[in-house]
Amino acid sequence: MPRRIDRFAFRTLVAVAAALLSIALRPGIAAAGTQDNVEGWAWSGTIGWISLNCNSVAPPTCATVDYGVTFEDVPGFPDRGNLKGWAWSENVGWICFGITCAGTTPQGGASYAQYRGSYNGKTDEIFGWAKIDALGNNGWISLNCDNDPTTTCAVSSYHLVLDATLPTLTAPFTKGVIDDHWGWSGTSEGTGIGWIDFSSVMTTWAAASLGAVSRPVGVYEPTTATPGSRLFTFSISFSNLTAAQDDLLQCDIRRSDGTLGAPLQKIYASTVRHVAESLQYTVTGADPIDKIKRWEVAACRIAGPRTATSCPPACAGGQICEGGKCRNVIVTTTAPAPIFAHANAWTIADSDTDDVYLATQCFNGFPGKYFGNSWRCDFSGDADFSMGMSQGANIERYCGDSIDNDGNGETDCNDRHCKGISLLCRTPPLAPGAPPLLEPLSCTWGASGDNLADCTAGFTPGTICCTKQNKIVDGYECFHGIANDGYIDCDDPGAVVGDVCCSTAGMVQVK
What we know:
Layout: H1 7-20, E1 38-44, E2 48-51, E3 69-73, E4 80-89, E5 93-97, E6 113-119, E7 122-132, E8 140-142, E9 160-161, E10 171-172, E11 182-185, E12 194-203, E13 212-214, E14 218-219, E15 232-243, E16 248-254, E17 264-267, E18 272-283, E19 295-310, E20 319-322, E21 325-332, E22 337-341, H2 352-363, H3 383-390, H4 416-419, E23 422-424, E24 464-466
Parallel strand pairs: 14-22
Antiparallel strand pairs: 1-2, 1-12, 2-4, 3-4, 4-5, 4-6, 5-7, 6-7, 7-8, 7-9, 10-12, 11-12, 13-15, 15-18, 16-17, 16-19, 19-21, 19-22, 20-21, 23-24
């Protein structure tokens, strides 16, 4: 319930405030700018309406008195936003928010106001302070019971929130709960203006999030095309992406020769929340296509609006240069994602969806599913590498550069990842009368510490287990011996080193 205010003390303070209003419009006091992303009105039963943006007034006053409250991104903390700037009350004058306010808060320390996606067991709440400028230290307004030294949340659970769940342009300062849109102005001496209702305030700002990032398995050209001449467009997709107005979505593509293509990017003219998004790259004749060297999505990021700092020269750490201005990076991917480059051996139509789907089928043990030829599962850039990388495995990556890329002591085609595909952890089927396998769920080779889990006790179905085979026939073994007889790789009777399935000299293309 609202707490009592000493009305006499309040009337005295209002009288003082009225005397100060003659300087309330002095130049510079409300230099918040016209691009503020918070609009609407707060309501106090004591002082009436509070405007949070000069555009909220009818008619707008921005041409003569430019003020507003705004959220600013916190670089490196995508789920936080600092609230600052000025609001206006006809009865008590200017009201500052967050770091805009001078003085020491009742909590102690400098003023702040900040949205936090998750903090102290709370979700989407705003913490900190605002202040009625003319009332000095008697004018502090607490935005959350968590930072109010005069009470506890158990006694009065008031707070401000942003409803970040809505897929709308603006987010209100309420989720519709009775205590989630109130600020409190009151001191232990009974001064202050009491409760302030922020339920009619909204913002176009949003806490940036890339969501889930997906990329195609491969870039390839059909056999009918002259090498390097076929243009193929692939997509990097984002699910559940959130970005504020003027934010930049950007991805860097590193090609097989190590160079970066022009960044893929999009600037948002309006706020988007929890949407599906994509960026496209079109392969040109000038792009390197090498079947033994991958491309990769080097990084994707969301950066905030352009700052006033020009570039070049280089921007500061945590910033990128775009459009001649520096932007603060809010959130970025933490590791590169591979895109495996297929050369002109491919015959499927230009569809990265089919590329992913058929490679997955081939990897899961269905011969003849990947572009109609099971041998195509055997080469770098196909199912073994794609699935291995998706599991976070440290794999060889390049099978023709004479470098031990994964540091396991095996180079190029002598490395397990270049010899054959990987299998899922599962018990191989046994032919009738065949003896049981001694270790049916164990990998028979591999180096320790390579991030590939063996199928031993505690394994999870679907975990990658490595094999030496170079060809899928029935999904588990080479073509030697009886189909599905339980023998794996070149342990199958009749297999000898040098056979297609057991070759150590390099990868053999089967016609």
